[in-house]
Amino acid sequence: MMQANVREVVEWSGAEGTHGLADEDGLLLSGVSTDTRNITSGQLFVPLRGERFDGHDYIQTAKDAGAAATLWDSSVPLPDIDLPFILVTNTEVALQALSAGYLKNKLTAKVVAITGSNGKTTTKDMIFSVLSTTYRVHKTEGNYNNHIGLPLTILSAPKDTEVLVLEMGMSGKGEIALLTTLAKPDIAVITNIGEAHLLQLGTRRNIARAKLEITDGLKSGGALVYYGDEPLIAEQLAATGLDKQFEIVTFGEQPDCDWIARYIRVNADRTQFTVMGTGNTEIQVELPIAGRHNAINALAAVAVGHQFNLSFEVICEGLKFTKLTGMRIEQSKANNGAIIFNDAYNASPSSVKAAINLVAELSGYRRKWIVLGDMLELGEDEIALHGEIGRYLDDTKVDNVLIYGSLSNETYQEAKMNFPDGCVQHFDDKAALAHYLLAQLASEDLVLVKASRGMRLEELVTILQKGVRG
To answer: Do 215 and 248 touch, CB atoms closer than 8 A?
Structure first.
């Protein structure tokens, strides 16, 4: 974590000055926290403001918890508290600047940045696993991939970190540009261009432009690794001339990609495939994760590992022991022994189709169920896109479909035409869905749960694991 004296914090954060401190060099700050519930002794407290809260109101709690100093918005009156105050114009902006200063002045780590509509967290985990075979690697944890989470991730990196693997999320234009400018990556990865955030950006072409903002901070001579089966990325690269500014590396299934996945074989707990690469490279890869789409995500990790000059044997070893962040094809068992795949962290049309394809590829089960909830933030075409998922479903891919949510009623209306009567059902009530599935699910069955995070379908997974409602 960040180790810095107050003078360094003042410089990096762009502070106006300090209050209540005689010796700026004498006080060493160890770490940064924005949450008084998690402060440890010696940390710098950063009070952030939101629509319904103001961290400045909790300064006494922060001091009592062990904060050694605090950033402080200079427009807020100083409280009568014996604590060093570092005065800034805006604490959020100062936090971001502080992280960039720490990265530039205290860390020598290479930076790998990852964005994409789908698969970025899984890809991050795979890259982390590959690089951890050889280097001391620090990565984004959980959903710390935004304008607050990314600075906190950088500031939590140990001084001896050799590689930072940073996930970059977005909801609109300009957000990736901010994150990549702070991190200044050596390698940037774009997993794909999907339909997530159509509400904010309108078209997939605009999404591609927003994702390509990751090159705004990419170092001169750096590498851009992207999903080569997506023509919109190549189109935008050519239109902007970015394809001439960086080393370009592509991955996918098309024959003109630099790294290609072939002969993909999937079962419930692993995916095996062959990687074809430059120089007639051919390697066999095994992932401890199900899903054809995860073979494609793994190609990005192969490409990054190759950029770090790792041998293919080492890269394969790293992939073999990948551990995924929760609720990304997270496998568990129901109370009665049925297999559950929890993929309820996020959803878009492309990721839902990938989940359906995964279920279709698996065999050896009495019945295969898929539970789908609403896909959020899809904009004016949201009804049509939910209907498209319904048409994509049929009884050759899955035996039973349970659908939850108002938007997903369109999925239900389209899907029920492709199945025998009773195999597709719609629920407005999550408890009723849980009650029905508990009564129907057999120990030899498989069920995959997929929805946008706002639908909270992980609650259904917990119910199935416990075997009781509520």
So the answer is: no
Task: Tell which of 320, 345, 361 closes a domain.
Answer: 320
Residue 156 lies in a domain: yes
Any bridge partners for residue 32, and if so which? 44
**Residue 469 exposure: Cα atoms within 13 Å on the Cβ side:** 11
Does residue 358 belong to any structural domain of this protein? yes
Tell me: do 311 and 379 sit in the same domain: no
Q: Is the pLDDT of residue 326 over 80?
A: no
97 part of a folded domain:
no
Each residue of 21-65: pLDDT tens digit? 877 778 999 999 999 999 999 999 999 998 889 999 999 999 999
Residue-range definition of the domain harbouring residue 266: 107-320
Please check whether residues 134 and 24 belong to one and the same domain: no
Q: What is the pLDDT of residue 282?
A: 92
Give pairs for 42-45: CB < 8 Å, separation 24+.
42/66, 42/68, 43/67, 43/68, 44/2, 44/9, 44/68, 44/69, 44/70, 44/71, 44/86, 45/69, 45/70, 45/71
Instruction: Name residues whose C-beta falls within 8 Å of residue 59's C-beta, 6 or more positions apart in sequence.
Output: 45, 47, 70, 79, 81, 83
Contact 95, 147 (CB under 8 A): no
Paired tokens of 275: 């990687």
Q: Are 200 and 71 in the same domain?
A: no
pLDDT class of 345 with cuts at 50, 70, 90: confident
pLDDT (mean) for 226-250: 94
11 secondary structure, DSSP code: H
Q: Does residue 378 sit in the same domain as residue 278?
A: no
User: For 403-446, how does the pLDDT look when each residue is reduced to its tens digit (9 = 90+)?
Assistant: 999 999 999 999 999 999 999 999 999 999 999 999 999 999 99
Q: Are residues 262 and 397 in the same domain?
A: no
Task: Establish if 338 belongs to a structural domain.
Answer: yes
What is residue 355's predicted lDDT score, i.e. its pLDDT?
Answer: 94
Residue 260 above 70 pLDDT? yes
Element of type H or E holding 344 = none
- DSSP helix/strand/coil, 175: helix
Residue 151's identity, in one-letter code, is: P
